[in-house]
Amino acid sequence: MTPLPDFVDEAEIYVEAGTGGNGAVSFRREKYVPRGGPDGGDGGRGGDVILVVDPALTTLADLRYRRHYRAGRGGHGEGGNRHGRRGEDCYVPVPPGTVVRDRDTGAILADLADPDQRVVVARGGRGGRGNARFATPRRKAPRLAEKGEPGERRWLKLELRLLADVGLVGWPNAGKSSLLARISAARPKVAAYPFTTLAPNLGVVQRGPGRSFVVADIPGLIEGAHQGVGLGHEFLRHVQRTRVLVYVVDAAATEGRDPQQDLATLRDELEAYEASLLERPGVVAANKMDLPAAAAHLSRLEEAARRWGLELVPISAATGEGLDRLLDRVEALLARAPASQPLPVAERKVYRAGPDPRRVEARREPDGTWTLHGPLVERWVAMTDFDNEEAVRWLLRRLERLGAEDVLRAAGARNGDTVRLGPMELLLGDATGSTDGEREGAPAGEPGGHRGDGGEGGSERGGRGETGHGPDR
Ligand SMILES: Nc1nc2c(ncn2[C@@H]2O[C@H](COP(=O)(O)OP(=O)(O)OP(=O)(O)O)[C@@H](O)[C@H]2O)c(=O)[nH]1
Ligand SMILES: [Mg+2]
């Protein structure tokens, strides 16, 4: 049998959410009160592992190199009813079209087709409750606090499926590849579709501005494919994702087969795999019409097609005859075909994450200073004790990871501009410069003022999947 083509892109990764922080055992200490009430805060929730669709990605190749993804642990609670901070989430970028399964149960967790979909695949553990929560009228001084719960962990199996609009199906040698080459090569604007590993089988057909669709040339179907014979299921799985089918039939019967029978068996195979495939809009391309033998078969093939409710277009991938008509027809079917259906998702535990909390915006205030906005930024700034040098440094590192400086500069901020973070004012400087250069940019009048930990050169960082390692994973 033909070896499996590099058609299915797969990867297995291990995801582990952060453990919740422990609750604290602590008692208030006040003057003249020998022993105050319990004031141990709760531990923070562990971070989640979140898959994020990144439309710039086209393969799962990156995930084969880095296989373990862990989110940060929640902070421990502290005295004074201070709760631990939430563990940092870990983001794993995946290409559109990624189907996510639990490796061990096989259950489909998500079908990530939308360009901005995000899904939590491992939830962080709950933080433990501090002893303040355990006080009762009878037990005023509880000496116990909960431990944080472990985060979810599991192995995932990721599969990249084609998201082609049109699938070319047919017997080996019917001329599917020739057809694809022809409709892709005939127009100079056609670009190789960027799925590198899948490139030989995918083409973008561009019929005019804004009128393009993706065609998949699917390896030849043979009888028994639905049982896994030949490329079997691999192939049929991809057919499932297309919206329109083109049945490519060798009308000249060059292999000595009966074209009419070919079409019938083709339909049988599709039906046996999944009956609904028969209802998918389709058109029969009677290929090889340039060969004299073809004419004799045409009327019977046409009749068979009509019985299935399919229109037939005679073509020749060799000469180009009939291709415009075929593509017109395909376009018309696509216009009416429903968008491809996502796969049914098995597990309800998985939820869709909200909008990306990492997004940062820079705003220019009326007084000419800059401020940063975004869910994470705002939370962090609110959380930071600006009198604590360590805390401020922590905040700046976080902001650097989010690419805050790039955002500021993209928004028009220049060296020497002031950036306000809570009560602190920073001067934007040249991060690549020497330490001397950095001194220049030291904020004026800020006790123990800081700048973004300059040396780490922000823009390359904080990218793919590298985020989210908590402090003590
Ligand atoms: N005369 C003629 N030959 C054709 C035409 N289209 C394809 N062929 C020939 O038919 C043979 C098979 O073509 P392919 O395009 O490789 O067929 P395929 O359907 O992709 O085959 P598999 O990949 O094996 O499933 C090649 O020798 C082509 O040159 C056509 O319109 N006219
Ligand atoms: Mg081929």
Automatic annotation (TrEMBL):
Disordered: annotated span: 70-95, 122-148, 428-473
The protein's required cofactors: Mg(2+)
InterPro entries documented for this protein: G_OBG, GTP-bd, GTP-bd_Obg/CgtA, GTP-bd_prot_GTP1/OBG_C_sf, GTP1-OBG_CS, GTP1_OBG_dom, GTP1_OBG_dom_sf, OBG_GTPase
Entry's localization field: Cytoplasm
Main location: cytoplasm
Keyword Nucleotide-binding attributed: yes
SUPFAM superfamilies assigned to the protein according to its UniProt record, in alphabetical order: Obg GTP-binding protein N-terminal domain, P-loop containing nucleoside triphosphate hydrolases
Keyword terms, alphabetized: Cytoplasm, GTP-binding, Hydrolase, Magnesium, Metal-binding, Nucleotide-binding
Comp. bias (Basic and acidic residues): 75-89, 448-473
Any one GO biological process: ribosome biogenesis
Residue ranges of every copy of the Obg domain listed in the record: 5-163
Domain OBG-type G, residue spans: 164-335
GO molecular function annotation: GTP binding; GTPase activity; magnesium ion binding
Domain OCT intervals: 352-430
Top EC group: hydrolase
Amino acids binding Mg(2+): 177, 197
Documented EC number(s): 3.6.5.-
Pfam short name (any one): DUF1967
Annotated binding of GTP, by residue: 195-199, 217-220, 287-290, 316-318
A GO cellular component annotation in the UniProt record: cytoplasm
Family: Belongs to the TRAFAC class OBG-HflX-like GTPase superfamily. OBG GTPase family.
Complexes and interactors: Monomer.
Function: An essential GTPase which binds GTP, GDP and possibly (p)ppGpp with moderate affinity, with high nucleotide exchange rates and a fairly low GTP hydrolysis rate. Plays a role in control of the cell cycle, stress response, ribosome biogenesis and in those bacteria that undergo differentiation, in morphogenesis control.
Protein's recorded name: GTPase Obg
